Recover the amino acids of this structure.
């Protein structure tokens, strides 16, 4: 059986790879969170999380064109949030329960939410320039609208997304 596609994001290289087994099927330049290097820790830090996530759904009518939702925060994020007293035990349990059910985790904790892969919305020369040269998001991974629409053909609910520094 053919392996499904996996998305591999390298924040420091500003690169998203669409992998089919060990073969790279597509390569895109991306923008990530303007909060810089390191893992997302708390709502508002503008960092893109690090780790293994899964696609949980799609919003075709997003202000950012297409929005591909990820299951942030996952069990790893919840564990560190609980350890740092950023979330309660009940919130951690809700995150674990969502992960067990392959459902969207709570989006309203102090860890933040609404992390995904998206386009840039209304395109113009300034936005395309920023997209090409700067990390500008609040923690998401951004491509041009054309690229995120092209990426959609490789992605389904459950697609694995590995985010590396």
């Amino acid at each position: 059986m053919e392996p499904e596609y996996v998305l591999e994001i390298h924040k420091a290289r500003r690169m998203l790879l669409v992998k089919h087994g060990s073969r790279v099927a597509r390569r895109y330049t991306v923008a990530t969170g303007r909060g810089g290097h390191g893992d997302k820790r708390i709502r508002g830090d503008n960092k893109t999380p690090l780790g293994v996530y899964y696609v949980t759904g799609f919003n075709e009518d997003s202000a950012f064109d297409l929005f591909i939702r990820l299951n942030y925060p996952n069990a790893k994020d919840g564990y560190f949030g609980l350890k740092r007293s950023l979330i309660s035990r009940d919130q951690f349990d809700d995150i674990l329960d969502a992960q067990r059910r392959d459902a969207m985790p709570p989006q309203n904790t102090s860890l933040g939410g609404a992390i995904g892969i998206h386009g840039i919305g209304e395109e113009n020369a300034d936005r395309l320039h920023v997209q090409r040269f700067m990390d500008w998001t609040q923690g998401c991974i951004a491509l041009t609208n054309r690229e995120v629409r092209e990426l959609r053909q490789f992605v389904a609910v459950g697609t694995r997304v590995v985010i590396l520094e």
Notes: Helices lie at 75-83, 89-100, 125-133, 145-152. The first strand starts at residue 5 and ends at 10. Residues 42 and 111 are 4 Å apart (CA to CA).
